């Protein structure tokens, strides 16, 4: 997973020689902060960017050969086919799939959206276009961005994982995202439930913030329960989409969304993933683009650790701390000067582990709880909702009573009673 295969990126000279035929684009290249203004040839960009059957790589070749999108649309079939093939030529010259009135409405809707504060339409010809995507063979020609344009050029790492994450996975995603953001890396994820949401929240608490790459139009939020989170990201980070405004969530859009996540970053960290998961698609795409792939290991009994273990077997770097990721980015901070030891906050390790770390005053003894063995089906059927809640919070790794209380919001006496019942049933066992 560490190989860096060569690609066929648009070289700097080709990029700079794209024909900027409009005053708006010339202004955008001279002043990147103005690149959010809708370009004068936006209709031509929209027609080509969303033309059926026109692949991004083919459009990129046509733009490199003829200049701006209006110049491409003005070419003959033979000229277009000579550069990108007959299928691409047919796609360029075909009328828009919607009626003329519908297409005009789409253009006006896009202009109105881009005119709102914080909204941007960024094309391949804009200086604000992410340089990282230009190393891809098929970068999207058009991006809809809601939020900070400067984050498109930031050094970034993706944190992805299961939508049905365990409490431990969510804690890990948030902790790693906060640490990596504080170190100066923007954190990229997909705004999905579980690991993605935890990564965004952790990064928003850090210094470098976060980018959410979505599989819908930039004017929609999916899943709907992430409206508040999406608002936070748009305020302090950025939301990025390559889909036209109004595009609903479709299953076929998300693998392409994953490709964009992989293209924007220097590495991808998988926190939890099943064997068949979109996170593994992101990891594979990242590897094909020459990005680094990292994975956090887990219990051999945990289904959501199997995807991570598979990636590690295939060459992904096993990471245990954020510093393991920062080391690959060449961003390990200098060791701070020795100072008097401050009291350590509890982090969920057992009392024995904390004493082994060299604390001068060991913390009070506590008890960890862990699943003892596989649960027979009849035991699951007989479990109460509160017992299932505790088991879900426990996961497959030991946890202290304090951690379980924070994960379940149960009172101490109630939680202790449930743990005792589960232990008597043979569902869990206490550890010293």
UniProtKB/TrEMBL annotation:
Domain DprA winged helix: 375-432
InterPro entries: DprA, DprA_WH, DrpA_SLOG, WH-like_DNA-bd_sf
Residue intervals of the Smf/DprA SLOG domain: 121-329
GO terms, biological process: DNA-mediated transformation
Family statement drawn from the similarity comment of this UniProt entry: Belongs to the DprA/Smf family.
Matches recorded under NCBIfam families: dprA
Protein name: DNA protecting protein DprA
Organism of this sequence: Caballeronia arationis
Lineage of producing organism: Bacteria, Pseudomonadati, Pseudomonadota, Betaproteobacteria, Burkholderiales
